[in-house]
């Protein structure tokens, strides 16, 4: 019963996809439409493909060291000091990511649902439950994601299905567009949402079959990618590209214009936000968990509880820094850029060193 | 397994510290303490009558627009609408209205809403705002400010109905229909039912906004009029061009519009004089439309093929029997000819007013993206081009049923 | 009787040695040597607290031994009609024939006074006979054993269980006496693999505690873990199974019960067959079943005795009731005070009318009503049934009506509170129902503070707690988490019994198959297909 390798491939996939589906779903269609007008789904799809390539780079490397996390074997590959620097940078990235994600969540909650509630209270509550849950071990961590994923996916799918009858196919045409700079930028922005698939690094040492890490990621990225693409299709299909660009939260407006039974249950947006709380929670939980884990390893705390408690005020302050919605979105974009470079560059570096070393070993032997 | 009592105690302590920070009930307003605005009407105030403003949101109005609007709100009064099915009693009939009608004025809608708040005790909430009626005068002016406020406000539903009224819009807030306790809800159910019976397209404020922001389509709204003080008539479509109302159609043209769009179910009956069978009425049940677009000589062309299915409803001159397929075909032929002229007239009319309510531009945009990118750089471009688009309409009616009478 | 600590130690030893030890071949014959036959037989029956081995001198001359289960036979009768004549010298000074057939015949015809019995030379048949309630007599020098039917199960005072009534299913419940309870179990589970370990517990009460499991099914580490936890109990008195529950549960601070307690022997046997462990205490009419999972608390016997479609539907309804009892008041509060836009407009207008005269905010109103409902429930639960019924009518009807009339509560609140209470009664397990009922109050408070967001936060906290919880090493939310498709056959829906061929995998059972694999699925399919044909 105390076998540490308890995380099945399916559960690893669930962790990744419930992490990916998060705060971004509300504004995602807007970014995509800004980049591609009626071809927004195509942009989103390209983004999904790019994220998978980036993920593959990372996971296939980690698969070669099934016993250790990235932070352990990187020390052997590029040396202790350099590895430590990279680990610190990754940790900072995830700390800021948590702060900004929770801030975006707070923005939505206070604009749409609770206008008088101070944003601090909403944010603090969300961080508090993440704190409470990031004190557990990785297996329990995967339980949580596995349990919530059907709720998240189910509710989003129901919203999409209810909206589908209002979709006007004309709005989605022309489907294809000539790839322009704008197009690639949009696709790049789409990959930001998938950066948290980095969590696989923590899972590999606990997976039943570490060799299936890439497969788990493939399922996860394509499931969550499909959800994202569907959301883009639905909101562009309903509103049209021009209107989608005007809306700050197109997905929310989509839930808002859907009705369940003629007029019997309207205003699905409140319900949608409530269920969206879960998906935000799972996302923040993951990034919080990664941050706490890294801090715990870096400072060699006895357990993770201490690290996660220390992080709470830091993240809270970070979340309070942006002064308005536009600023928090801009910061998130900058962070996404930085994250992309790191998530793409670091594995690439490790791969090169790894291949060189292996080559050398072969030569010497 | 180990009893981790100290840790849990520390946790409880943390929670008790957090509790006073968290307990605020900031947004808690009981439902009966909210002034739920159910309907709004917006009118323009005649220029000579602008002296009285409450100055709730501003003091100097030199730099502000001089035109003012008058907003009439219908607010639900808690307690006047009994819970559950009507108890049937005639106590206080007609005297206690379940809604409170408040009229305020202001420079913008938000300004007026703030003036309104200054006048009533309970905080106003627009979460149950279902109907907004604007007068034709307002609609012919710019709606940009109105749309901006309504879009920004998260309380507004995208499924609110925005109606354009003939004459003063505030008159609609005072109607007292016998079918519903709350007048606004009567207008709401009237609009919803007209959608489900095919009398009107599903044109919520959200649909209006979407059409308004599309480059290749112009927006339209229901046009309503008051008859006999309490009866509300759907008098046609108010169509827009460049964000302003450009004109309105006749009620039967709503049916024509829906036919062009292929919207089901069909709900309109047509009264027409045939050449040999006298006056007949047919009722349209189903509509199906096939559209094609092509570019000829650098100009967009569209062809509409409309297929209708209907019933023979009434035949005036009963002495001439309608008892053979040929005779039905005659009716169909005459119908097709006459309605075709109606539809062409409708298209012509909107082309003159530069209002593409059919979304022909969207067809061109999606089917001929290259042409579109070359020629259209904004909504105005299309609306001016629209008047020169060639439109070709072909109509086919199939009469499926003739009712229980044989000849 | 050993101490629990020694038992734990010897069990561990045995588990370690049993892997190397070879099982005795079945079908072996009696040797006739008492010294070899008796230990062999005892080994086959295993450690059992209620197994009695009585050796004596037959007719005062020949060494012999008698073997039976004390829980299955009447000791008084054994003494009077078997032991007494056998130990007495042969009547009438007549010669006792010393050959095999003669001796048995002599005993059968002159000494013992039982109605039925046989002889057998097959050693492997004897354990089965013993667990059926036969008395086995082995005589030194004679390679045949005499089986005498002495089965008598004391059923005195067995009544219908009060807390777990069923519509269809056995009507027997446990009584206070341990032997009776054990015999109720053995009577249902006539298997040689069924093990009962008995030892006293409690410094002063010395209450006998019985640990029951099926040896070939139950995970040995689970049995060891239960024994370990029981051996760690230090208290002066065990007066009920509930005492033990509090000592051995995983998380004493959790509101959710991690040990199932039942009054029903049939439920216990079903749990044992799945590979769980049951604990019975002398003097308590409740058995504890571990590990207990969340899913078990809304399952009843009726789900299994009724046909599977009905069983599944009722289970789903029960789950809805459970969700109602937990969330309804909180949702009501948050919709009324925070998000009235969720209501249909005409209903919202009407509700605001219903609440127009109520002086309290919705949170307070709901809390007052809920608390008074709990008081009412607590007040009626211990009253005799006649008075209780009358009082609850007075409480519900009169107070509810009066509260609305006096403007203390709105009619909708009364409806919500009534629905909640009724919903909480639909959860079959009393302790789980209480847990959910109590959790509803923090949820209402959260709803009052943050509206739907608060309810969601509360729900996440509750769900996370459930996901973290374990009962004896098994995740509490099994089989949903960690999910295995094949275990989902007995969760929200219950598939037909013939489809549940395997035991739940989360219990790590030794024998995963309920049926031997030799019974092929094809056979079942064939039976089904024949059924189809006859329909046509």
TrEMBL record, chain A:
Chief localisation class: membrane
Domain of life: Bacteria
Keywords: Germination, Membrane, Transmembrane, Transmembrane helix, Transport
Localization per Swiss-Prot or TrEMBL: Membrane
Keyword flag Membrane: yes
Topological type in the membrane: Multi-pass membrane protein
Pfam families, per the entry: Spore_permease
Residue ranges of the TM segments: 12-32, 38-61, 82-105, 117-134, 146-164, 190-207, 219-241, 270-295, 307-326, 338-356
PANTHER family in UniProt: SPORE GERMINATION PROTEIN A2 (PTHR34975:SF2)
Family: Belongs to the amino acid-polyamine-organocation (APC) superfamily. Spore germination protein (SGP) (TC 2.A.3.9) family.
Official protein name in the record: Spore germination protein
Organism listed in the record: Paenibacillus silagei
Lineage: Bacteria, Bacillati, Bacillota, Bacilli, Bacillales
TrEMBL record, chain B:
Protein name per the record: Spore germination protein KC
Coiled-coil ranges (or none): none
PROSITE patterns per record: PROKAR_LIPOPROTEIN
Compartments (UniProt record): Membrane
Species lineage: Bacteria, Bacillati, Bacillota, Bacilli, Bacillales
Keywords, comma-separated and alphabetical: Germination, Lipoprotein, Membrane, Palmitate, Signal
Entry keyword annotation includes Transcription: no
Residue stretches making up the Spore germination GerAC-like C-terminal domain: 236-403
Membrane topology note: Lipid-anchor
Family: Belongs to the GerABKC lipoprotein family.
Signal sequence coordinates: 1-23
Domain Spore germination protein N-terminal: from-to ranges: 27-225
UniProtKB/TrEMBL annotation, chain C:
Biased composition, class Polar residues, residue ranges: 13-29
Keywords attached to this entry: Membrane, Transmembrane, Transmembrane helix
Regions that span the bilayer: 56-75, 316-338, 358-376, 388-408, 414-436, 443-468
InterPro entries according to UniProt: Spore_Ger, UPF0353/GerABKA_families
Region Disordered, residue ranges: 1-33
Signal peptide start and end residues: none
Keyword Transmembrane: yes
Domain of life according to the entry: Bacteria
Family: Belongs to the GerABKA family.
Designated name of the protein: Spore germination protein KA/spore germination protein
Species annotation: Paenibacillus silagei
């Amino acid at each position: 019963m105390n076998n540490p390798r308890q995380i099945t491939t399916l559960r690893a996939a669930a962790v990744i996809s419930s992490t990916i589906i998060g705060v971004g779903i509300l504004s995602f269609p807007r970014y995509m439409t800004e980049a591609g007008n009626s071809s927004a789904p195509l942009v989103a799809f390209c983004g999904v493909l790019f994220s998978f390539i980036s993920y593959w780079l990372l996971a296939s490397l980690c698969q070669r060291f099934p016993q250790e996390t990235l932070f352990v074997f990187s020390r052997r590959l590029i040396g202790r000091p350099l590895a430590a620097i990279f680990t610190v940078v990754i940790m900072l990235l995830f700390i800021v990511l948590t702060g900004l994600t929770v801030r975006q969540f707070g923005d939505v909650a206070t604009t749409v649902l609770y206008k008088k509630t101070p944003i601090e209270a909403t944010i603090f509550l969300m961080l508090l439950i993440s704190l409470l849950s990031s004190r557990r071990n990785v297996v329990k961590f995967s339980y949580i994601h596995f349990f919530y994923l059907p709720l998240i996916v189910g509710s989003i799918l129901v919203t999409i299905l209810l909206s589908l009858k209002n979709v006007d196919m004309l709005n989605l045409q022309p489907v294809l567009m000539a790839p322009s700079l704008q197009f690639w930028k949009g696709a790049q922005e789409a990959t930001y949402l998938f950066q948290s698939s980095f969590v696989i690094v923590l899972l590999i040492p606990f997976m039943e079959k570490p060799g299936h890490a890439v497969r788990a990621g493939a399922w996860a990225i394509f499931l969550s990618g499909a959800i994202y693409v569907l959301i883009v299709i639905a909101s562009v299909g309903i509103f049209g590209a021009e209107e989608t660009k005007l809306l700050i939260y197109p997905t929310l407006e989509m839930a808002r214009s859907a009705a369940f039974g003629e007029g019997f249950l309207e205003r699905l947006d409140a319900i949608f936000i409530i269920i969206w709380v879960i998906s935000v929670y799972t996302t923040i939980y993951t990034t919080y968990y990664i941050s706490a884990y890294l801090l715990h390893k870096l400072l060699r705390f006895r357990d993770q509880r201490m690290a996660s408690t220390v992080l709470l005020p830091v993240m809270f302050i970070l979340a309070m820094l942006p002064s308005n919605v536009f600023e928090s979105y801009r910061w998130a974009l900058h962070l996404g850029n930085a994250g992309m470079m790191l998530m793409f560059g670091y594995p690439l570096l490790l791969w090169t060193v790894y291949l060189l070393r292996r080559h050398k070993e072969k030569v010497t032997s | 397994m180990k009893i981790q009592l100290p840790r849990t105690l520390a946790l409880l302590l943390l929670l008790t510290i957090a509790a006073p920070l968290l307990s605020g009930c900031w947004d808690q307003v009981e439902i009966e303490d909210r002034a739920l605005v159910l309907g709004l009407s917006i009118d323009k105030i005649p220029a000579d009558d602008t002296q009285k403003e409450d100055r709730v949101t501003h003091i100097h109005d030199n730099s502000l627009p001089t035109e003012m609007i008058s907003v009439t709100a219908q607010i639900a009064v808690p307690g006047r609408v009994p819970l559950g099915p009507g108890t049937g009693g005639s106590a206080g009939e007609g005297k206690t209205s379940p809604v409170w009608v408040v009229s305020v004025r202001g420079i913008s809608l938000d300004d007026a809403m703030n003036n309104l708040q200054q006048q009533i005790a309970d905080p106003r909430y627009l979460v149950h705002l279902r109907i907004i009626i604007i007068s034709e005068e307002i609609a012919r002016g710019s709606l940009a400010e109105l749309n901006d406020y309504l879009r920004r406000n998260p309380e507004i539903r995208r499924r609110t109905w925005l109606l354009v009224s003939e004459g003063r819009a505030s008159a609609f807030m005072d109607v007292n229909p016998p079918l519903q306790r709350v007048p606004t809800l009567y207008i709401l159910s009237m609009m919803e039912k007209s959608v489900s019976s095919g009398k009107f397209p599903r044109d919520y404020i959200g649909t209006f906004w979407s059409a308004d922001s599309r480059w290749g389509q112009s927006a339209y709204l229901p046009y309503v009029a008051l008859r006999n003080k309490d009866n509300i008539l759907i008098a046609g479509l108010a169509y827009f061009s460049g964000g302003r109302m450009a004109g309105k159609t006749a009620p039967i043209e709503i049916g024509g519009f829906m036919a062009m769009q292929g919207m089901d179910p069909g709900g309109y009956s047509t009264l027409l004089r045939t050449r040999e069978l006298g006056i007949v009425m047919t009722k349209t049940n189903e509509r199906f439309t096939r559209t094609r677009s092509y570019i000829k000589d650098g100009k967009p062309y569209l062809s509409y093929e409309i297929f209708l299915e209907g019933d023979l409803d009434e035949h005036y001159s009963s002495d001439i029997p309608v008892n053979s397929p040929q005779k039905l075909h005659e009716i169909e032929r005459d119908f097709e000819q006459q309605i075709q002229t109606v539809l062409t007239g409708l298209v012509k009319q909107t082309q003159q007013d530069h209002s593409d309510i059919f979304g022909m531009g969207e067809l061109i945009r999606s089917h001929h993206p290259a042409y579109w990118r070359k020629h259209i750089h904004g909504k105005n471009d299309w609306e001016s081009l629209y008047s020169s688009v060639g439109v070709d309409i072909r109509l086919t009616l199939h009469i499926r049923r003739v009712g229980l009478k044989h000849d | 009787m050993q101490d629990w600590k020694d038992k734990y130690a010897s069990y561990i030893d045995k588990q370690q040695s049993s892997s190397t030890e070879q099982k005795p071949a079945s079908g072996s014959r009696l040797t006739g040597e008492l010294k070899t036959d008796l230990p062999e037989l005892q080994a086959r029956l295993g450690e059992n607290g209620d197994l009695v081995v009585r050796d004596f001198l037959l007719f005062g001359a020949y060494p012999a031994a008698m073997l039976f289960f004390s829980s299955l036979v009447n000791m008084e009768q054994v003494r009077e009609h078997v032991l007494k004549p056998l130990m007495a010298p042969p009547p009438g000074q007549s010669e006792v024939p010393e050959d095999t057939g003669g001796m048995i015949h002599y005993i059968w015809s002159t000494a013992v006074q039982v109605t039925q019995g046989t002889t057998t030379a097959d050693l492997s048949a004897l354990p089965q006979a013993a667990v059926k309630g036969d008395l086995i007599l082995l005589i030194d020098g004679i390679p045949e054993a005499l089986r005498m039917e002495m089965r008598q199960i004391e059923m005195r005072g067995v009544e219908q269980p009060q807390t777990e009534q069923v519509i269809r299913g056995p009507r027997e419940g446990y009584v206070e006496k341990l032997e009776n309870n054990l015999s109720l179990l053995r009577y249902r589970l006539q298997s040689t693999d069924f093990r009962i370990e008995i030892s006293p517990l409690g410094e002063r009460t010395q209450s006998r505690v019985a640990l029951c499991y099926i040896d070939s099914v139950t995970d040995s580490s689970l049995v060891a873990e239960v024994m370990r936890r029981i051996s760690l109990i230090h208290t002066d008195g065990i007066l009920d199974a509930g005492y033990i529950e509090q000592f051995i549960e995983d998380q004493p601070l959790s509101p959710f019960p991690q040990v199932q307690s039942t009054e029903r022997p049939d439920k216990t046997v079903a749990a044992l067959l799945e590979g769980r462990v049951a604990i019975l205490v002398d003097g308590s009419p409740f058995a504890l079943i571990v590990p207990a999972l969340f899913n078990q608390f809304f399952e009843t016997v009726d789900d299994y005795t009724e046909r599977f479609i009905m069983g599944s539907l009722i289970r789903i309804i029960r789950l809805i009731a459970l969700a109602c009892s937990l969330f309804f008041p909180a949702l009501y509060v948050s919709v009324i005070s925070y998000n009235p836009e969720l209501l249909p407009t005409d209903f919202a207008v009407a509700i605001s009318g219903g609440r127009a005269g109520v002086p309290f905010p919705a949170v307070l109103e709901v809390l007052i009503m809920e608390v008074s409902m709990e008081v009412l429930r607590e007040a009626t639960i211990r009253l005799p049934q006649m008075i209780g019924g009358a009082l609850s009518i007075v409480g519900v009807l009169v107070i509810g009506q009066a509260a609305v009339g006096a403007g203390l509560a709105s009619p909708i609140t009364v409806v919500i509170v009534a629905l909640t209470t009724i919903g909480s009664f639909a959860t079959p397990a009393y302790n789980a129902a209480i847990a959910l009922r109590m959790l509803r109050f923090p949820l209402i408070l959260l709803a009052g503070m943050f509206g739907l967001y608060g309810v969601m936060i509360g729900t996440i906290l509750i769900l996370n707690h459930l996901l973290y919880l374990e009962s004896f090493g098994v995740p509490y939310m099994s089989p949903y988490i960690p999910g295995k498709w094949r275990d989902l056959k007995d969760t929200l829906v219950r598939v037909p019994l013939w489809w549940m061929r395997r035991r739940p995998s989360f219990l790590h059972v030794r024998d995963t198959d309920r049926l031997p694999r030799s019974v092929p699925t094809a056979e079942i399919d064939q039976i089904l297909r024949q059924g189809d044909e006859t329909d046509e």
